[in-house]
């Protein structure tokens, strides 16, 4: 049991560290619904990966990238609002994934595990994916931090400064897609964005600068993982939802503190 818990902690902490900085951009740019759309499309990627016998993480990343490109293309039609497009894509991809899963009668799929996560079932291959993908994501975020922050603060000013705004926006979407792909086994398809949003929203009240907010978000995410795993261990509750509940309790606690929001 100790070995399972150690792997679960390593996986959860790895995801929390990655999700912290990206979650800040999701909060700053009000992209929560976009994250939900990518998360819903992850189930379609899982279904197609199983059907086509492709490695699931690769299938999810490809599916999320294609969905992001489709969204950018559809956004050029100004007759349809972005939130409407996100709603259509989110529920269409989730439903299509469920339909494809139902058609594969000869394959046994732990659908609940993919929807709500199965942190205690993490193996060494999953850890390799999480940490290799995490190093890549963190490296890119650190390298592109200033351009990403510039387009978040003021896109027009960033464009005047010569920053490729559309490219940076697409890179941010792809980074979020990669995090969703490696995190789906931790908290599940339906709860992935909570690990992006809640720690970042909590950190917003504690930080005095964007960089500190990113660090706080990672730290609070790690704390939520530890508390969630402890709650799951002692009370036999589902691990992924327990982590999200712990993150939510931290948010309520910090929100109740008489502090002025800085970021």
Explain how this protein is built:
- The chain has 12 helices and no strands.
- It is mostly helical and 263 residues long.
- The chain has one domain: Orthogonal Bundle (ABC transporter involved in vitamin B12 uptake, BtuC), CATH 1.10.3470.10.
- The longest helix has 27 residues.
- The chain is globular, with a radius of gyration of 18 Å.
- Global Rg: 18 Å
Output the CATH class name. Mainly Alpha
Counting helices, strands and paired strands, the structural category is: mainly alpha
Count the DSSP helices.
12
Strand content: under 5%
User: Any idea how many domains?
Assistant: 1
Q: Largest beta sheet, briefly? A: none
Distance between the termini: 41 Å
DSSP E strands, number: 0
Note the run of SSEs as H and E. HHHHHHHHHHHH
Shape by Cα distribution: globular
| Helix share, percent | over 70%
CATH-scheme architecture: Orthogonal Bundle
Uncertain residue segments? none
Average of pLDDT: 85
CATH topology value = ABC transporter involved in vitamin B12 uptake, BtuC
- Kindly report the name of the CATH homologous superfamily: ABC transporter involved in vitamin B12 uptake, BtuC
Oligomer state of the chains in this structure: single chain
């Amino acid at each position: 049991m100790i070995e399972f818990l150690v792997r679960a902690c390593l996986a959860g902490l790895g995801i929390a560290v990655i999700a912290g900085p990206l979650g800040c951009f999701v909060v700053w740019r009000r992209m929560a619904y976009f994250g939900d759309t990518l998360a819903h499309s992850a189930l379609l990627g899982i279904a197609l990966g199983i059907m086509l016998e492709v490695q699931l993480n690769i299938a999810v990343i490809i599916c999320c990238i294609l969905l992001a490109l489709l969204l950018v293309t559809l956004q050029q039609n100004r007759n349809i609002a972005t939130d409407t497009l996100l709603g259509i894509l989110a529920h269409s991809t989730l439903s299509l994934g469920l339909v494809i899963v139902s058609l594969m009668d000869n394959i046994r799929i732990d659908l609940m595990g993919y929807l709500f996560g199965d942190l205690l079932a993490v193996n060494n291959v999953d850890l390799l994916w999480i940490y290799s993908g995490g190093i890549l994501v963190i490296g890119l975020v650190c390298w592109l931090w200033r351009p990403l922050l510039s387009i978040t603060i003021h896109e027009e000013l960033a464009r005047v400064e010569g920053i490729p705004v559309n490219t940076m926006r697409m890179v941010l979407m792809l980074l979020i897609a990669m995090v969703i792909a490696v995190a789906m086994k931790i908290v599940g398809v339906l709860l992935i964005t909570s690990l992006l949003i809640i720690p970042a929203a909590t950190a917003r009240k504690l930080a005095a600068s964007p960089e500190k907010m990113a660090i706080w978000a990672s730290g609070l995410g790690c704390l939520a993982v530890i508390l969630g795993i402890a709650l799951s261990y002692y009370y036999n509750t589902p691990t992924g939802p327990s982590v999200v509940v712990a993150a939510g309790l931290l948010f309520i606690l910090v929100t109740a503190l008489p502090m002025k929001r800085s970021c």
